[in-house]
Amino acid sequence: MLSRRGGGLETGHAALPQAALQIRGSRARALPDRALVNCQYSSATFSTGERKRRPHGDRKSCEMGLQLRQTFEAAILTQLHPRSQIDIYVQVLQADGGTYAACVNAATLAVLDAGVPMRDFVCACSAGFVDSTALADLSHVEEAAGGPQLALALLPASGQIALLEMDARLHEDHLESVLEAAARAARDVHTLLDRVVRQHVREASVLLGD
Fold this sequence. Notes:
disordered N terminus; 4 helices; Ribosomal Protein S5, domain 2; RNA binding; RNase_PH; 4-stranded mixed β-sheet; 11 strands; 4-stranded antiparallel β-sheet; 34% helix; alpha+beta; globular
């Protein structure tokens, strides 16, 4: 049984201090040819200005968990761990916009820290079209404006899209600029995460005397 926990990360507009990951056997749900990816999302009562208590397993949490599962199924090499289950737990303590993207970026670090093989980093960013301008990494105020919003999760090395979702209609003339804004920001996130991971590996190697 392998169990690792990812450290804290504050990225985008959501504070995500914990993204835990486990690999374990599960006879009831195990798949014979690959690992089962399970993602659970929750947000603290004080994470937004509403101070609204959300019951466990509410619709928003289930939808976010499903999005995260679909995203990481596209990146994790699940065939290397048959009859296993990979659990990713994400809790949001402060949600000021771009929650999905922050969850993906934090969980990516947790998965890497646990030593789970992946095809590539998974880097995400939100984007929208506000006042005839394509904007990346939307804040809560910009999201509340009600314009079209796009969420993108990207595998930067191959350019493969792990997840793409839009919550409102957007004219096709503007889609390319909004998508490019999200992709460019996701690649910037990859540059940052790659630098942090490499620095962490170097420091760990020095401590281990390698």
